[in-house]
Design goal:
single chain; mainly alpha; Four Helix Bundle (Hemerythrin (Met), subunit A)
C-alpha cells in the first residue's frame, strides 16, 4: 500500500508509466500466488512437484524483476525531468531512452507472464482459473497503458522516422500480447 500512498501525493513520480508497471507487477503476483497454491498441492502429486518447484522459482524471479520496473520507471521519469530543467540534451537523451527501455521491458516481460499462465492452466484445477484470468487481464491492461505512455513520450522526438519506428515496434508488441491474452482467456473460459 505504500505505493498507493505515493500515488496519492502531488509528487510528479510515480505516474502513468509506474502505474502501468505496477499493474504488470500485480498480474505477475497473481500468477505467483497460483504457483504457491499449486506447489502446496503438489505434495499429493509427486510427479509434478519438481516441475512446479522450478516454475515457482521462475515466476518469483519475474515478480522481482517486475517490482524493479516499477521503481525504475519513476526514477527514469525524474531523471528526464531534471535533465530537461537543466537543459542538458545529452542527459535528456539518456533519460528518455531509459524511460522508453523500461516501458519496452514491461511489454516484453508480459510474454513471459503469459507463458507462465499457459503452463499453469495445464496443471491447476479449474477453481484457480479465475486467478489466472485476472492475472492475464492485469497484464494486458499494463501493456495497453504502457503503450499509451510510450506514445505520449515519443511525441518529443524530432525525427519522424524515429517516432514511427518506436510506434511500429510498440504496436507490433501490443498486438502480439493481445493475441496471447485472448488465447489464454479463451482457454480459461
Amino acid at each position: 500500500m505504500d505505493f498507493i500512498k505515493q500515488f496519492e501525493s502531488a509528487s510528479l513520480a510515480p505516474a502513468g508509466g509506474a502505474a502501468a508497471a505496477y499493474s504488470f507487477c500485480l498480474g505477475v503476483a497473481m500468477i505467483y500466488k497460483v504457483s504457491l497454491i499449486e506447489n502446496r498441492r503438489a505434495v499429493e502429486r509427486p510427479e509434478l512437484e519438481k516441475n512446479l518447484s522450478v516454475l515457482k522459482k521462475e515466476i518469483e524471479k519475474l515478480l522481482r524483476d517486475a517490482e524493479k520496473l516499477v521503481a525504475e520507471d519513476a526514477q527514469a521519469y525524474l531523471l528526464f525531468r531534471k535533465s530537461r530543467q537543466e537543459s542538458d540534451p545529452e542527459a535528456m537523451k539518456l533519460a528518455f531512452n531509459r524511460s522508453v527501455d523500461v516501458s519496452l521491458k514491461v511489454i516484453e516481460q508480459s510474454f513471459s507472464a503469459f507463458e507462465w499462465i499457459r503452463q499453469l492452466q495445464l496443471v491447476v484445477p479449474k477453481t484457480l482459473f479465475t486467478h489466472l484470468r485476472v492475472a492475464s487481464e492485469l497484464i494486458m491492461g499494463s501493456v495497453n497503458a504502457t503503450v499509451h505512455v510510450v506514445k505520449d513520450n515519443i511525441l518529443g522526438i524530432r525525427s519522424e522516422a524515429k517516432r514511427e519506428s518506436y510506434l511500429s515496434q510498440i504496436q507490433m508488441l501490443q498486438e502480439k500480447c493481445k493475441r496471447s491474452h485472448f488465447e489464454i482467456i479463451d482457454k480459461l473460459c
